[in-house]
Amino acid sequence: MLSAVKGWVQPVKRKEVKVASLVWDQPGERLFETGVDRGVIYLRDGRSAAWNGLIGIDEDPNSESKSYYMDGVKYLETMIQGEFSGKIKAYTYPDEFAYAVGIDEPSPGLSFYEQPSKNFNLTYRTKVGNDLQGSDYGYKIHLLYTKIVLLFKMVQKIKSVS
Q: What is the pTM of this model?
């Protein structure tokens, strides 16, 4: 860039700009996350239990974006936080979860279904791995609190007769 000063053309000094150097695929930095490793359910009355049959949790935060326009031109886009919803997948569940979904067992062998659901908290762990240590690199603990089960699909099949 040139500028005219006192009739002479002199170069303008520019500031030195440093560009960040990016490096991909460094050993040990390629991370991945595996599925659910273990879980614990906590009831509001203080009871808790390990959830041995937990095989998956699908989280759906229900967020959406809202765009604002003026004279046909978008000038703002915001995120609207929705209510959390999710799906728990398990091949078995602890008695504490049965209580949370509204299955009351006042005495052994007697169960009352479709009772009011109760709030519960849930923590579950997923393993984190990298390209050097595999899935033993570390783990993440996920916290779900004050949740309630709205719909509970339970499939019971007859044992095959031979």
A: 0.69
